[in-house]
Amino acid sequence: MASLASPSLLSSLTKSRTGRVSLVVLSYSCCASRSFRRGAQCNTGSSVANRRVFLGIGASFIDQLVRMASGSGGVGRSLVASARPRQDVSPVEQILKNVDWPEKFPFKDEDFSRFDESSDLIFYNEPRFVTHIDDPAIRALTDYYSKVFPPSNTPGVAMLDLCSSWVSHFPTGYKQERVVGMGMNEEELKRNPVLTKYIVQDLNVNPKLPFEDNTFDVITNVVSVDYLTKPLEVFKEMQRILKPSGLAIMSFSNRLFFTKAVSIWTSTGDVDHAWIVGSYFHYAGGFEPPVAVDISPNPGRSDPMYIVYSRKQMSA
């Protein structure tokens, strides 16, 4: 949990039926003091909006969220899951099974605010030729791709790597006639050996994807879904440009540029993140029920790695 510098307002405190504290909502507008892998610094010169932080203690994420969305009780919102894990089954893999989704998208605009609201073009101006997850996590992701991707050099297959950079973690030697990368830094994209074309575009400014309907067989996104400030718009666009039954794979870990990740992500944990990404698929519409997969190679010893995927509905 981030340690908060000068938190300002305790806005909601509720108790569960057992009397345990279940929700604390803090509003604050300062930088978190938290270690994170890629060394981003808080931009104290930029305008930073107040952010809501959801600290659930003994709270049920789904119960609280559904209760809030349905108006059936509860004065606050808990976005911290307490899935009951079955033996030898990851809670991440359980959280999207048989979900009773709220009628409406449960998040608000402020949930997608960030500590650093300065232009992403400035933040990503300098290339970073580094990897943002460790080697075991990379190998786990590459192995997963090798199992679900169409065979290399399949005629007619087109792939899109969203929020791409100098490496996409595709299997060694993997090729398709069309592999497009969209990212923020041209120098990084130029270095990516799997791309046949690249486009520089800030999805937080313009979430419209510049492709025709039913273009791609596979869309990937590696450890970047947590930076999307307009996720529903992006996921609706993904659904539009995927071919019927096309596959969208969102992968994430717990490594991030903390100041650029959205509030709802930095305030919650790994299980919640799977639910959040699943909600993007669900509320975008036109996708099959999303599925979460825990591919963490060495739990507790190396970076965790998670997948939430879905396919475009055949009838969409």
Task: Please characterize this protein's 3D structure.
- This is Methyltransferase domain-containing protein.
- It is a single chain.
- The chain is an alpha/beta fold and 316 residues long.
- It has a single domain (91-312), classed as 3-Layer(aba) Sandwich (Rossmann fold), CATH 3.40.50.150.
- The protein contains 8 helices and 12 strands.
- The strands form 3 sheets. Strands 8-7-6-9-10-12-11 form a 7-stranded mixed beta sheet. It has a 3-stranded antiparallel beta sheet with strand order 2-3-5. It has a two-stranded antiparallel sheet with strand order 1-4.
- Strand 2 and strand 3 (21-28) form a beta hairpin.
- Helix 6 crosses helix 8 (270-284).
- It is globular and about 40 Å long.
